[in-house]
Design brief:
With about 300 residues, the protein is an alpha/beta fold. The protein is about 40% helix and about 15% strand. The strands form two sheets. It has a six-stranded parallel sheet. A six-stranded parallel sheet has the order 9-8-7-10-11-12, with helices on both faces. α10 links the parallel β11 and β12.
């Protein structure tokens, strides 16, 4: 199995989690290719992620390459992208995606089934600690995510709601920051996010929902709440994204302010939920578990058995 990962995107999340991290847990005969013209072996299986163009697909089709389309986001708003993905999915051996909702959307658009293979966790597991708060304590909260998802959030309204629950809140926001963003926002790095999370009490993942972005938002995988659980933190989010709601035995999904109040008032239950969540991660989201799904898919395709 070879993953097509152009050099320009090798450090982006989707290519780390759905490429480099997987390869670290595979045998040495697997790897990645950064130039589509090197995709030549008809006895190999190639994984094409979201950084590709018509030239890549034409090359694969003309050379009778076995390839899988790995679709990790809803990308089909623009006609140009829709046409590109239609071409890409016509001759691929399978479509892989991150969650059931996105699989359903792909089926509606391309009339093809998808195989759900979730993102593996890329963080070390840290045991949760029970913490009891008084009204005088400072509660440290971190929000993380892509800038395109962070920017639409009404932070003034969010802060107003949070301060009604507790008077002393320190809110930190880390994202792929632009010069246009508030000065107090923190520019993202993998290591810095981990540090901020470890220093925090809770993780907030607020979702700015609009009908226009319905398919894009609801098609998101659950890597962000999994990230928080894995690091021993309680995650508070809306009930907008189905893959997040699937984790509601381990996190809060619903009204953000109510979630914060619940977390403060129920420290023992919070630790129990995180502990159960980490057990869930160990069962379904470790790199070795996810790698097995990819290897099973490879075996079925190359041996021409039923998917």
């Amino acid at each position: 199995m070879k993953f097509f990962i152009p050099n320009s995107v090798i450090d982006r999340y989707s290519f780390r989690a759905r490429g480099k991290l997987l390869l670290e847990n595979m045998a040495n005969n697997h790897g990645y290719i950064n130039d589509y013209q090197l995709i030549k072996n008809t006895n190999e299986l190639y994984i094409i992620g979201k950084e590709f163009d018509h030239d890549v697909i034409q090359h694969c089709n003309e050379n009778k390459i076995n390839y899988v389309m790995d679709i990790s986001d809803f990308k089909f708003y623009k006609n140009s992208m829709l046409e590109l993905y239609k071409k890409a999915t016509e001759n691929c051996k399978a479509i892989v995606t991150t969650c059931d909702y996105l699989a359903d959307e792909i089926k509606k658009i391309f009339n093809k089934p998808s195989i759900v293979i979730e993102d593996p966790t890329e963080r070390k597991q840290i045991k949760p600690n029970e913490k009891i708060f008084t009204k005088h304590d400072n509660i440290k909260i971190v929000i993380y995510g892509a800038r395109k998802n962070i920017r639409p959030i009404n932070f003034e309204n969010l802060k107003e709601q949070l301060f009604k629950v507790h008077q002393n809140i320190q809110l930190k926001i880390i994202t792929n920051k632009s010069i246009e963003d508030p000065i107090e926002w923190i520019d993202w790095s993998f290591e810095l996010q981990e540090k901020l999370v470890q220093e925090s009490d809770f993780i907030l993942l607020p979702i700015a929902y609009t009908e226009k972005k319905k398919a894009f938002l609801k098609s998101k995988g659950n890597n962000r709440p999994i990230d928080g659980i894995q690091q021993g933190k309680f995650v508070i989010t809306n009930d907008t994204i189905p893959s997040y709601v699937d984790l509601n035995n381990f996190i809060w999904t619903g009204d953000i302010a109510e979630g914060l109040k619940y977390a403060i008032d129920n420290p023992n239950e919070v630790v129990q939920k995180i502990t159960l969540g980490q057990q869930h991660i160990n069962k379904y989201y470790t790199p070795s578990r996810i790698v097995k799904k990819w290897l099973d898919l490879e075996s079925k395709i190359l041996n021409e058995t039923s998917l």
